[in-house]
TrEMBL record, chain A:
UniProt domain 2Fe-2S ferredoxin-type: residue ranges: 4-86
Species of origin: Methyloceanibacter marginalis
Xref: PANTHER family: OXIDOREDUCTASE WITH IRON-SULFUR SUBUNIT (PTHR45331:SF2), OXIDOREDUCTASE, IRON-SULPHUR BINDING SUBUNIT-RELATED-RELATED (PTHR45331)
One annotated GO molecular function: 2 iron, 2 sulfur cluster binding
Domain of life: Bacteria
Pfam families with a match to the protein in the record: DHODB_Fe-S_bind, Fer2_2
Matches recorded under InterPro entries: 2Fe-2S-bd (IPR002888), 2Fe-2S-bd_dom_sf (IPR036884), 2Fe-2S_ferredoxin-like_sf (IPR036010), 2Fe-2S_ferredoxin-type (IPR001041), Aldehyde_Oxdr_Iron-Sulfur (IPR052914), Beta-grasp_dom_sf (IPR012675), Dihydroorotate_DH_Fe-S-bd (IPR019480)
Name of protein: (2Fe-2S)-binding protein
Species lineage: Bacteria, Pseudomonadati, Pseudomonadota, Alphaproteobacteria, Hyphomicrobiales
Automatic annotation (TrEMBL), chain B:
High-level lineage: Bacteria, Pseudomonadati, Pseudomonadota, Alphaproteobacteria, Hyphomicrobiales
Every Aldehyde oxidase/xanthine dehydrogenase second molybdopterin binding domain range: 520-606, 649-873
Source superkingdom: Bacteria
Molecular function per GO: iron ion binding; oxidoreductase activity
InterPro entries (alphabetical): Ald_Oxase/Xan_DH_a/b_sf, Ald_Oxase/xanthine_DH-like, AldOxase/xan_DH_MoCoBD1, AldOxase/xan_DH_MoCoBD2, AldOxase/xan_DH_Mopterin-bd_sf, TAT_signal
Residue ranges constituting the Aldehyde oxidase/xanthine dehydrogenase first molybdopterin binding domain according to the UniProt record: 268-494
Protein source organism: Methyloceanibacter marginalis
Listed name of the protein: Uncharacterized protein
């Protein structure tokens, strides 16, 4: 059995070295090595995006990555944020609170992926505001690959739109 | 290994202990114990999320957010898939892993397995086959009847039937071996071609009705009046042989049915329109693929399971049945179930097959905990929605009035390789096949057939989705033929309160079809459709614009619905509500907390969903017989025992959450007001007879009456506890299309409640109150069906690109009669999700039936097209709910009805845009191009 060693910083905690099977998916690593089950396994082929986490780059930017089609080895040396990282001191993040306030989810299984993707969108907009006219298109482009079977997407999208509109720094005329 | 995660805030923390409730013993004497899985002792204290205050807003009106909102938004460990052995109190820490090998061929003989592709260090530690099960005397029986695994030398009964269960010690070996096996050919070895296994149909019924002199008059003949009829035998193995009908009721159905069909054929029933309609095989695509965890504690002869299913009690019973003859070392004395939240279900986790294999994995893992978690390919092959064919000559109608005169329909459902709910789904399709319309004479036959396709079962819509879709398209075609407005034709033929439905039963709820149609007609999307069309097509010359309307009437409940509820308060006034159900995302846990406010002035502080835990023991309930089949004599005899009820708890299915589950909560809350708070208030007020119970009012969260001092809940609670008064009420309720009722004597007071069992808590002790009289719905009520009915309507506007046939849904407006909305945001959320799922059924979702379909293990969402946001008018979806007739109207189950009309409205919009009628689902761009 081929194995590899990795170390990853997850939610600010450096973890490793872990010796893992070379083909271990990151979502399984999070679940079974770190006990972080908030990241959800949905389709296993990178289509539904329930398993998305945020990877923070050294230059201060971040990107979302799917953890079901990317092996844990791909994340070696990286800094990763999962859904468990967003609430601080018992207080939900703005995105989480917006989803809760809007009754955005039902079963909630896709919620961690939406939380991560929407968080990254807001962080992007803080650097590069979107035009007010283009806001809905931008939301669709950012969240559009995330599957949800319960909600029809309406409340997720409205929650993100309201949150962005409430912060003048995220949009421009 | 310790988990790092937040503590769940919902359901609220409860005393985590070995809480059990004996739900009865199986034939083999296996004790069944169900344990709700909630916030867990294994959680690290410093990693828990503090309580989220204020979910209920001001405690009286709509809540601020879902009671489980924080837990889900923070990724708390809630779902069955989240748990490992280390999370389970008292289990060994390490988890083994199991996988199923599923047959991708059901027309050749299964010869055996070849695992040589796995290196020695990757070989499974245990391989379980049909031969092992046979040697251990383990077999499916009771609800499940098919072979659990295909034995060597036999052709698999159906695509996706397991041939072996492989157990691996340690995650590393499992992960690597599974990857190799998934991509390998020849692991399952097949021999000679035999063709598919043929078996008789799962069931058939005929619903023939000859109405009386008016829509409310007694029927001349109907299933409700004369009983349901089944065919005497099947010709060529698949087709009902009605002409040989016997006994008398069946013979009469055949005679009346033949006559109705003759009147359509010879023109006596008026002008006739015929239609053939075919709906597709579809997948539930719940987001969380099925999984489970099991541990065989051999020292105590106990098998413990952790599952996420809609049917906790019945799932456990089915496993007990499977193991009832098992021999050592697989014989057990106790079966313990822990039940988690689950990530979506839509009917797909109502009596699924997987828990049986989870149990087998646990038994064969040599005393080590084991996890069986399907991947998505396996999940899609495990169970899906059945395809249906619907041949109808609906509706002879009088051209001068447009009134429907007769309706004939023959429904066929391909039930796949296991019985599941196929026969029941076929019946539901038949009963709802006239949609929201009254027809004086009808003859509807239905059959659920066996095939070697993958397991087909229940899904949101439960047959009504298919048959109503066909009817609503036909009604539009009738309107076009008569040159009538589609809404006007619907209005002319709509069911109204007091009318008899297709079974001859009268819905016990108001049917506000006229108000529904009025709202649809007044919707700008409908009333301005011609202007919108002109404007759109002027701006988009290569696109066609179409608008379609459709309605639906569909049942909620099953006719055998049982619910438990307990409402209690502490001395400091905190209210706790417990209800016997599971949360699959619809918001039931929030709804039960809110329903308490009907009588206690504010929401509960805690909501606990507990299917059949020890908490219900004070009622001491017993049950026997089949609530759908028992005779009146048997029911009367059983009811003499004050602890007997026809069924203890229901599955979380058939849209029962709002109607059934919260009904019991409301009754318990009422009794707590009457027998707990009211005596306390009277004692405080010292008002004698000047104030009566009927005078009580909650104003701003305080109880008052006739100008008496407003009393806070805390003050009343303190008084109740201090005086040894009633501080908790536990009830059981049963519905067979009407609620059971019973009389209780409580402290000199007589109460007739819509319940059949009652216990009160005083001084910390629960005591059961014997019912003095009980009135269960007559056994014959089982025939009625659909007397609880919800209605809805939808308007869909879409465009079609004339160059490539591409369909774009632009706007959807839905009108819904949900009775009283307990939580309006949950209702509209259900509607939005239902609209999206409906659009998927109409336009994108499709599975081939056999060898090219999900049974070959290659289907996932790269091929199965679940609607994305771009397929849904996210920003242009609106909902209008009819205001309740009265403020205290009962809520109606709407989880299914919100989805159904969207499908025919979409098809009618396509017809409007193209002039083409499509009668196969889904309708794709290719279909449109070919038709042009």
């Amino acid at each position: 059995m081929e194995t590899v060693q990795i170390s990853v910083t997850v939610n600010g905690r450096q973890t490793g070295h872990h010796t893992i099977p070379a083909g271990l998916a990151m979502v399984d690593f999070l679940h079974d090595y770190l006990g972080l089950t908030g990241t959800k396994f949905g389709c296993g082929i990178g289509v539904c995006h329930a398993c998305v986490v945020i990877v923070d780059e050294i230059d201060g930017t971040s990107r979302s990555m799917r953890t079901c089609i990317n092996g844990a080895a791909v994340f070696d040396g990286k800094r990763v944020r999962t859904v468990e990282a967003h609430a601080k001191d018992g207080r939900l993040s703005d995105v989480q609170q917006a989803f809760v306030d809007h009754f955005a989810f039902q079963c909630g299984y896709c919620t961690p992926g939406f939380v991560n993707e929407a968080t990254r969108l807001l962080e992007d907009l803080a650097r590069n505001p979107v035009s007010k006219d283009g806001l809905e298109d931008r939301i669709e482009a950012s969240l559009g690959e995330h599957l949800c079977r319960c909600t029809g997407y309406v409340r997720y999208y409205e929650a993100v739109r309201d949150l962005i509109r409430a912060n003048p720094k995220l949009t421009k005329s | 290994m310790k988990a790092m995660h937040f503590r769940s805030q919902a359901p609220p923390p409860v005393n985590w202990s070995r809480r059990r409730f004996l739900i009865g013993s199986s034939a083999a004497g296996i004790t069944l114990a169900l344990v709700p899985l909630v916030a867990h002792a294994a959680f690290e204290k410093d990693e828990t999320m503090p309580a989220a205050p204020g979910w209920s807003g001001n405690g009286v009106g709509p809540p601020r957010y879902r009671i489980d909102g924080y837990a889900k938004a923070t990724g708390a460990k809630l779902y069955a898939r989240d748990f490992r052995a280390a999370d389970m109190a008292g289990w060994p820490d390490e988890t083994d892993h199991a996988m199923l090998l599923l047959a991708s061929d059901a027309t050749h003989r299964f010869v055996g397995m070849d695992l040589a592709i796995l290196a020695n260090d990757l070989q499974p530690d245990k391989v379980v086959t049909a031969e092992d099960l046979k040697a251990s005397r383990i077999r499916a029986k009771g609800y499940f009847t098919e072979d659990l695994m295909c034995p060597k030398g036999k052709t698999p009964d159906y695509l996706g039937q397991p041939v072996a269960l492989l157990i691996f010690r340690g995650l590393e070996k499992f992960v690597t071996a599974r990857q190799i096996l998934r991509g390998a050919n020849g692991v399952i070895v097949f021999g000679e071609e035999t063709g598919a296994v043929a078996k008789p149909p799962y069931g058939a019924n005929r619903f023939t009705r000859i109405g009386g002199s008016d829509p409310s008059a007694p029927d001349v003949y109907s299933p409700a009046r004369d009983g349901w009829v089944v065919p005497p035998r099947f010709r060529r193995g698949q087709y009902p042989s009605w002409p040989e009908a016997d006994p008398a009721a069946t013979r009469r159905a055949e005679a009346y049915g033949r006559d109705i069909r003759a009147t359509l054929d010879n023109g006596r029933a008026g002008r006739v329109l015929k239609q053939h309609f075919q709906t597709q095989s579809a997948d539930h695509f719940f987001m969380e693929p099925e999984s489970g965890l099991a541990w065989h504690d051999a020292a105590n002869d106990r098998l413990s399971l952790m599952l996420g299913v809609q049917s906790p009690a019945d799932t456990l019973r089915a496993i007990a049945d499977m193991l009832s003859d098992a021999e050592s070392p697989y014989a057990i004395k106790e079966l313990e179930g822990h039940f988690a939240y689950f990530g979506g279900a839509f009917g797909g986790k109502d009596m699924p097959l997987l828990p049986n294999y989870v149990a087998l994995a646990g038994l064969f893992a040599d005393g080590r905990p084991v996890r069986l978690a399907l991947d998505r390919f396996e999940s899609i092959s495990a169970r899906h929605e059945a395809p249906r064919r619907d041949d109808r000559k609906p509706t002879g109608r009088r051209p001068e009035t447009g009134a429907f005169t007769a309706f004939v329909c023959d429904l066929s459902l391909n039930g796949g390789g296991t019985a599941n709910y196929s026969a029941s789904v076929a019946d539901a399709a038949a009963i709802s096949s006239a949609s929201m319309y009254y027809v004086p004479k009808s003859d509807v036959s239905t059959i659920a057939t066996h095939s070697h396709g993958v397991t087909a079962g229940s899904m949101r819509g439960y047959g009504g989705l298919q048959s109503i879709t066909a009817m609503e398209c036909l009604v539009d075609d009738v309107a076009a033929q008569l040159n009538m407005d589609p809404i006007e034709l619907r209005r002319k033929n709509a069911m109204r309160t007091g009318y008899r439905n297709l079974t001859g039963a009268v819905p016990v709820v108001t049917i506000r079809s006229e108000a529904l149609l009025d709202r649809l007609e007044q919707s700008p999307l409908w009333s301005r459709r011609d202007q919108d069309r002109r404007a759109f097509q002027a701006a988009n010359p290569y696109k066609a614009y179409g608008v379609g309307v459709a309605c639906a009437m569909f049942k909620y409940g099953t006719g055998e619905d049982g619910a438990l509820a307990a409402v209690s308060f502490s001395a400091d006034g905190r209210i706790e509500v417990a209800a016997s159900t599971v949360e699959m995302g619809t918001g039931t846990s929030t709804a039960v907390a809110v329903r308490v406010a009907d009588h206690l002035g504010r929401h509960a502080d805690q909501a606990i969903l507990d299917s059949t835990g020890l908490r219900w023991e004070p009622l001491g309930l017993v049950t026997s017989g089949d609530p759908l089949k028992m005779s009146q004599q048997d029911q009367d005899a059983a009811a003499a025992n004050p602890r007997w009820v026809p069924v203890i708890t229901s599955r979380a299915s058939a849209s029962v959450g709002a109607h059934v589950t919260t009904h019991a909560v409301a009754e318990a809350s009422y009794a707590l007001l009457r027998f707990g708070l009211w005596p306390a208030a009277r004692a405080i007020w010292q008002a004698g007879d000047t104030v009566t119970f009927a005078d009580l009012q909650w104003i701003d969260g305080k109880l008052t009456a006739k100008g008496m001092e407003p009393l806070s809940f805390v003050r009343l609670a303190e008084r109740c506890h201090a005086s040894g008064g009633t501080t908790g009420v536990m009830v059981h309720a049963f519905s067979r299309w009407q609620w059971a009722g019973a009389e209780f004597a409580v402290e000199g007071d007589t109460w007739n409640g819509a319940i059949d069992a009652l216990a009160l808590r005083r001084g910390g002790d629960w005591r059961v109150q014997d019912r003095r009289k009980v009135s269960f719905p007559p056994a014959s009520t089982e025939r009625l069906s659909e007397t609880y009915a919800a209605t809805s309507g939808a308007i869909v506007a879409l465009s079609i690109d004339r160059t490539n046939g591409a369909i774009k849904v632009l706007r959807v407006h839905e009108v819904l009669d949900c009775g009283r909305a307990l939580v309006p945001e949950l209702v509209s959320g259900q509607a939005q999700g239902g609209i999206a799922m409906g659009l998927g059924h109409a336009l994108t979702e499709y599975l081939p039936l056999y060898e090219d379909g999900p049974g070959n293990g290659t289907w996932n969402v790269n091929r199965y097209d679940v609607p994305r946001a771009r397929d849904v008018p996210v920003w242009d979806m609106t909902l209008e709910t009819l205001p309740p007739v009265k403020n205290d109207d009962a809520p109606r189950g709407i989880a299914e009805i919100v989805m159904i009309p969207v499908i025919p409205a979409t098809l009618n919009a396509i017809h409007d845009a193209t002039g083409k009628r499509f009668t196969r689902l889904p309708v794709t761009a290719d279909d449109i191009q070919k038709a042009q």
